[in-house]
Write a structure and sequence with these properties.
This protein has 189 residues and is mainly beta. The chain has one domain: Roll (Pnp Oxidase, Chain A). Strands 1, 2, 3, 4, 7, 8, 9 and 10 form an 8-stranded antiparallel β-sheet that branches. Strands 5-6 form a two-stranded antiparallel sheet. A hairpin with a 6-residue loop joins strand 3 and strand 4.
Length: 189
Amino acid sequence: MAVPAPDITKLRAYVDGAVYCTNFGVTNAMAPIDASSSVDTAFKAIGGVTDDGLTETTSQDRTKIFLWQKNQLARQITGEYEKVFKFAAAETNLITLGVQYGGSTITQTAEGVSIAENPPGSDIRQWILHGIDGNKAERVYIPLGEVTSRGDKIWSSGAITIYEWELTAYLDLAGHPCYRWILDSALAL
């Protein structure tokens, strides 16, 4: 039996892209409809992302049900579901500061900004994650996303300061954590 050769044109390495989010409290941004249209102006780019890119994790608990006869697995009942995206913003700008210090008062001043920092409260925003590989792309729209974990912010002479975030995608009213479009002519009709 011949083993089919791999088709390397179907491999993806998203070597470019962007992460966008709305400002706190903005709920009426126009959702994307495909992978290539312009992003609504209510979405603001967070700027550079570290070279680790984005990591998407999907997890779902399952409860295994065994029968007494032969102690056989009879069924698995689905349980808690979670979709998380991890990445690190590499720029310090008004958008990254707003996400990093959610719930705080950020005021632009003559010399930069002042932040009256509060413990983070609920800060659910709309997000767009966009990866590009040449003339191919993948866009993920998260209608209800919240940074639920923030990594250490390191001040160092040997590295740049980054903002590590875990973005949790909550289910919208239609029951979807996110919507995804893939731009690839080989997959099109």
